[in-house]
Amino acid sequence: MKEKIEAAVRGALARLGAPDAAFVVEYPPAETGADYACNAALVAGKQLGQKPRDVAVAMHAALEEAHISGVEKIEIAGPGFLNIFLSSESRATAIVAAREEGDRWGSNDAWSGKTIMVEYTDPNPFKEFHIGHLMSNAIGESVARLFEHSGADVIRANYQGDVGPHVAKAIWGLLQEGLAQSTVAQISAAYVRGAAAYEENTDAKREIEEINKKVYEKSDEKINALYAWGREETLKHFEDIYALLGTSFDEYFFESETGPRGLEVVHAHPELFVESDGAIVFHGEEHDPKLHTRVFVNKQGLPTYEAKEIGLAQMKRERCAFDRSITVTALEQEAYFNVVFTALELIYPEWKGVFEHIHHGMMQLQSGKMSSRKGNVITGESLIGDMITAAKEKMGERGVANPEEVARQIAVAAIKFSVLKQGAGKNIIFDPEKSLSLEGESGPYIQYAHTRCVSVLKRAEEESVALSAHVRGGIAPDIERLLPRFPEVVERAAVQYEPHFVAQYLIELSSAFNSWYAQERILGTPDAADKLALVSAVRQTLKNGLWLLGISAPEEM
RNA sequence: CCUCUCGUAGUUCAAUGGAUAGAACGCAAGCUUGCGGAGCUUGUAAUGUAGGUUCGAUUCCUACCGAGAGGACCA
């Protein structure tokens, strides 16, 4: 529809003598009641040296004459906007489409034929799964689904740091305590102790560096055993969390594998990676003044995160065929990725543009920054646990069929939505108190609207009230205007890697539905069949939209 | 000191260079003879400062003020 209008506007502009005016077809303010708006007259007015309002009048006449099918009328508004109103029949096509296309409703072909690897979550064994990982998971999973709904084949990848100083610190802590078999919580506590000792105590620092080297070399049996056990234990724990969140990865990569690969590549390119103060570095600023020097191999000859990333890129390429690889991590790593990807493209010029990085903001507490040393880190599982408790309390004794499962779905919805409703890349101020609230602009609000739809439709079925097959529009204009936008919103979100466009849309749709629902009786009215068709379309749109956010749509809650 | 990101109601977020800057939370006042009140209706209140570009700036440019992140052996 949007394309059709754009084509007609282009035609009208050509006739008026401004064929290359850069206009847009957009959504007008809700109060106008229009479906689309176009600013062409304002843009062309400048080129033609005429008043925008006069150009609008001329365009209006030209467009009326062109007879765009599905358009009922066009109005001139404000400084010269053309407000375009669709006919009721045209709006109703979305109602039919939502029902016919079912779970495919809203899909598009923006990434058709492409294979995209999305790497996200990326927690580190021996450390806690904290809420930053929840952010990465929520965004990564949603982006992956947006790609899938846009025709791409998606490979979900997870890159876990199973070697490096953090592991050595945890093992040092475990050795101090003599803990051979401990819980996941004790392992991460051991990491915190090790991290503190590393800072404060030079002997401990030396010991930890020794352990780090031994882990890489696998030269000490006692450490090997402790390492193998701790690694497996934490990875198992992570799998439980992935299941809870609804993520299932296709490929796993580990730093213990990428490290050696990265070392090889770095050593094979002495023209890029040079010795400096005992380490091997890459002088980023020599290639771009915005970049800086980073260490790829440290004094001990061990690969750093940088060299590992090069190894990771190589392994991804070997294992999978893809057109694009997108890594979702925190904002603080942006400068690091810029340097590493520059080095990567110098080594493999043919990979230019293949590797991309999306950064999400930092999760901050109202009281300040979270830090494991300060002990004010909120772990992913404790947050999920608290949310589940809150959800159960809210559910009360409603007699929901599977309360445990539904409470989990509500909890995950609340957490993911709070991350996805705002633009990626912005920091999130996390208020533990407020986040437990399930009211207002939230995931559960949308789920609730969905359950209402399901509930009405169920009731209709019991009473044998059929849905209209041939839908008449004009029942609920506010809702009918929103429905046709869904595919366009999805495509925009998929192209820009911005799940929040979908989230904002769902809020708008749920809100329009709730308003209508509150003042309109559905069953037992003359046009119940048409209303039910509309409800069914809303239900499908909410369900698909929630799916795109990685959130499930329970039938009751 | 340098680089990047960001400053919108009391708070947390929206707004492809466009129309009267839109929500939620909070606060105030209402809504059950109805298919789910996790809801609905009404009210309250905002673009850091100073310039510039533009028919039009929250959006683009410059300076300043303020916040966050990064800047060599962590990830």
The main sheet comes to:
5 strands, parallel
Annotation field: number of helices: 20
What is the number of beta strands? 14
Poorly predicted runs of 5 or more residues? none
What brief labels describe this structure?
557 residues; alpha/beta; Gyrase A, domain 2; Rossmann fold; Isoleucyl-tRNA Synthetase, Domain 1; 3 domains; five-stranded parallel sheet; four-stranded antiparallel sheet; 14 strands; globular; RNA-binding
Structure in words:
With 557 residues, the chain is of the alpha/beta class. Helix content is 54%, strand content 12%. The protein has 3 domains: 2-86, Arginyl tRNA synthetase N-terminal domain (Gyrase A, domain 2), CATH 3.30.1360.70; 120-365, 3-Layer(aba) Sandwich (Rossmann fold); 380-548, Isoleucyl-tRNA Synthetase, Domain 1 (Orthogonal Bundle), CATH 1.10.730. It contains 20 helices and 14 strands. The strands form 4 sheets. The chain has a 5-stranded parallel beta sheet with strand order 7-6-5-11-12, sandwiched between helices. A 4-stranded antiparallel beta sheet has the order 1-2-4-3. Strands 8-9-10 form a 3-stranded antiparallel beta sheet. The longest helix is centred in the middle third of the chain and has 25 residues, at 221-245. The chain binds one RNA strand of 75 nucleotides through α2, β9, β10, α12 and α16.
